[in-house]
Write the structure tokens for this entry.
Amino acid sequence: MPTEPVGSDAERGDVLLMVGTTKGAFFFTSDAARQAWKADGPHFPGEEVYAMALDQRGGSPRLWAAPGNPFFGVTLRRSDDLGATWSPKDQRPVKFPEDSGLSINRIWQITPGPDDQPDRMFLGVEPTCLFETTDGGDSWAPVAGLLEHEHREKWTPGAGGLCLHTILQHPETPERILVAFSTGGVYGTEDAGRTWNPRNRGVRAEFLPDKHPEFGQCVHKVAHHPSRPERLFLQNHWGLYRSDDWAASWQDIANGVPSDFGFAMAVHPHDEDTVYIVPMESDGFRCTPEAKMRVYRTRDAGESWHPLTKGLPQEDAYETVLRDGLDTDSSEPAGVYFGTRSGRIYASHDEGDSWTLVHAGLPPVVCVKAAVIA
Amino acid sequence: MSVTFLLPGQLHELAGGQRRVVLDGHAGTVREAFANLRDRLPALYDRVLTEQGEVRPHVNVFVGRDNIRWSGGLDTPLEPDPELLILPSVSGG
């Protein structure tokens, strides 16, 4: 890998892997076969990159990244040439109002808005809040209903801080949005963000005296498929759940997994009932159970889960995959990708049936996003 | 009357590539000096102080050889034409 980043040379039909680490961002580019990968990076060397996104709604690919300087704070950067150049640090400030008493620590999620509103986007930040832009990202404002929520003082930070890490939009009704944060759990709005209510019924909080509070759960990730948006999957801090009613209630689906503790979760791009997770042994030992690197897949919406191991190390693999460290691409067959805290990137070009090591030796991976260039 | 800010390399981009920023005007305290900076170069101010007007936790501001952390914080008084040195701390992994 060259030490000077030049950006990705991905063209239409190619697959772009965006990898955020604690020390910068990296790109891996492949053609549609996804057999060989060209590496590029580090972008923003020395800065943690927890959030990246590729927005293709405007007709050409636009990269977003949120590098966080350990000393001078987080910035939001944009690239219209796949990372060859980035917008300056001083554009697009993401700030809490002074009277909020809050300061941004980290941007955890960058989510493009509805397809028919290409200038609308969302950010999930720490401390917990949702930011929104309606001008393509030139200006950002916190969503007041969440910023001023009456529960705020009772939300408490987990090991990753009080982070809003998941943003899910209802594709047919853009006023309906779900967010998830640790701790606090899942909250939903039905009125485009004016009011928010907790939606955690059935999700347990193992670390609290009351195991089933209205809110306060430590939800690690929620995922769904746009073709059936009401069906949701949730990886909890202890617990694996499905909802069929847009998070009004949750059912345990930890059927056949070695542990229901984990962070990452991703849905198959073409099958609403196929989901991938990477179980961790426990909250006390956040590593792959039995030192085996296993991705688990369900094809029946969580009725059963099966390990995917071909090409992955099955001994001495004390690995950790964090909440945004797993993603799928939209190819046919689908690609599945994950990155570890030990700096390894694995890829599957056959929906998880087999895996290859794309790269080793990166800084700890905190974010993996995959996209096919349109 | 002027206030001079001496910047670490990571912040030169926000000062037109310069290591030194000199702003006209009087500042009786470090807080007033940063208020002046905020008016003139808000993006640079944002990198040094949080939305709550506090120096970021892993940033040190020196007046002469004194870290303002132990000399009164943002209320540290300034002599005429002061120089403020901004440095990242040695924290990190």
Summary: Chain B touches chain A through 21 residues (CB under 8 Å). Helices of chain B lie at 30-40, 42-48.
